[in-house]
Sequence to fold (286 residues):
Amino acid sequence: MATPIGRLSDLGLRACDTLKHVDVVAAEDTRVTRVLLDHVGARPTLVPSHEHNEARSAQAIVERLRAGQRVALVSDAGTPGISDPGARVVAAVHDAGLPVIPVPGPSAVTTLLSAAGFSEPRFRFEGFLPARPKARRERLAVLARSDAVVVFYESPHRIVETVEDLAAALEPDRAVVVGRELTKRFEQVHRSSAGALPAWLAEDPDRRRGEFVIAFDAAPPEVSAIEAADAWLGALCAELPVRQAARIAARATGLRANDLYRRALALRGARDDEADESDGTAPRDA
Ligand code: SAM
Fold:
């Protein structure tokens, strides 16, 4: 079940009722959840269930459920299983043939999206980006071509570097929304262009503090078509000569066959002359 991501009064009525009526609450950190239980005056048995004991705790929870106990699973904040432990417990309960009942509520990802103002309905949730700069830039290069809105979590330690990488990966006018300290006292939802974001962040040290969730708009069609073309090329090049693969991918995506031919060679890591030997010349665009 979901718990607040900051403001305790965001705990829903049903969630409150659940905490009061279950026998056991399995919590990521029992000290954090104790505060919530005290807030609502609930006195269930509190047991730890976190990433380091999840397999063991999953079995213990299944046994409790089989014995007829009611068990709620919570993380420190937000929705369990969303960049938080919970999936293994939930899978074990399903595997045991027992019901899993979601009690929905806050999650930083949906909280930001509801205030972001993107008309593209699809979104791609990334959890946390890689912490290492090279891996993060590579991931952002892929995400920059996403035809869905992209949302990810970021820590205050990396926010400056990540925003700089984001500005480098996106077109300067791509819309980005930063949610900081959502639902809390110093909550901020800031929408700007990717190009303007590093300067905005540098302007005030307070803007670099707290918890962050960031979303950016889907790529313009000509950019997102490249992602689709890569998928086509990846599959087709395994079966067909590069020239033919590029022609089919061009028909499927509307991109130029010549461009896709060069892209396929780059993706395959092959040198042009190597491909020329096996494949002949580049295809003619339709
Ligand atoms: N399960 C949680 C959820 O449903 O949102 C997320 C857990 S994840 C370990 C924690 C990260 O979520 C934080 O580091 C931050 O990036 C983001 N986050 C959580 N609460 C937030 C808030 N109030 N404002 C902005 N971001 C938040």
Q: What stands out?
A: The two ends are 55 Å apart (CA to CA). The mean pLDDT is 93.
